[in-house]
């Protein structure tokens, strides 16, 4: 196979898994198993950038072929066109390599082979005209599907929606949380124990990883646990705990953490992470809606499952494989989990509810409904000094981070968190 071809084949497989079977990008990366690290990296770059620029690439291809061949007759032609155009226009691959690579992919497929002349013609035009066409496109709008664009415009207004969508266009930095606020080579301090690396790197090969000196966690994801204040020597029930970023954080802050997670395999991953970090927590594999502690705890964290629309920078497939009904299903589960969590909080104790979602049904509306159902709780507004003075991350007394926050330093995931105090 010629240079780059194993990577192109893997990228095609990743895109098919994501776009046709709606599988998560991270799971689809299994297609890179066995590739040389360089090829695996190239495959990941092609597939990742194709998803980040999906709307722009589709519009570009449609400008040349207004009626693309029917999916069932054309095999992987859509994937080959999208990835080929992406290589040419966004990844700066030389035209001869990208076009030849796409032709070879088509040649190797019984259905796509019949569309070689079309692929060749489209990609040759893309190599000549593509950059000028995409420069004139409304990238933020095209790369955000209607269902998300409309929701975000309603929740945040169009200007902020544009800023959110713009943040989704870049590969996010790598955030590292240190156990002992020690320096990390090549990383700049962001806030508290969070260090940021702009260059991507193989995490498990970095110094200090095997020794368990740090873990990877987006800067925004580190903020909800801070809303408890001092936790040293106190019990924190961590509901929906895997893969354990917040368990590690609370444990390293000196809390006695009881981590509750329903999925056995995800709990195993959490345990492995804690072992590497030489941290200890009590682990409970149970559905948090059914499990109850022996006695109520002073602190309960509920990091509820959600649409994860705040993490699109890290999961560029989400806009294209999820829809509004996923948001509604998650919102319903969050309500049930919140009711269960309320039972576990001692009088004068705190419940922190967090989601990595931008959708109001999964965040603020959950809290409004909860406070109506549970008059024994009140909202305890978040103060800027509790989150390193970052006032812009607070909305209506709650934590509300957006991908466009701290944009000049590389942005952050979108997280929502509210702090609720049990008063009786
Ligand atoms: C957003 S992730 C949690 C991330 C985690 N808190 C961290 O900081 O690494 C949500 C987790 O909740 C788990 N989960 C979903 N429903 C659950 C339930 N009813 N009871 C317990 N765990 C649940 C999922 O398996 C998933 O691992």
Overall description:
By secondary structure, the chain is α/β, with parallel strands linked by helices. It has two domains: 5-137, Orthogonal Bundle (N-utilizing Substance Protein B Homolog, Chain A); 175-422, Vaccinia Virus protein VP39 (Rossmann fold), CATH 3.40.50.150. Helices cover 42% and strands 15% of the residues. It contains 16 helices and 13 strands. It has helices spanning 5-21, 25-28, 37-52, 54-64, 71-74, 77-89, 95-107, 116-135, 139-142, 146-156, 158-167, 245-252, 264-277, 318-321, 324-343, 364-373; strands at residues 174-178, 188-191, 194-197, 214-216, 235-239, 256-261, 282-285, 297-303, 345-355, 377-379, 394-395, 398-400, 416-422. Strands 5, 6, 7, 8, 9, 10, 11, 12 and 13 form a nine-stranded mixed β-sheet that branches. A four-stranded antiparallel β-sheet has the order 2-3-1-4, with helices on one face. β11 and β12 (398-400) form a beta hairpin. α3 (37-52) packs across α6 (77-89). The longest helix has 20 residues, at 116-135. 47% of the residues are buried. Bound molecules: S-adenosylmethionine.
Defining key terms:
Rossmann fold, 2 domains, four-stranded antiparallel β-sheet, binds S-adenosylmethionine, alpha/beta, 42% helix, elongated, 424 residues, N-utilizing Substance Protein B Homolog, Chain A, nine-stranded mixed β-sheet
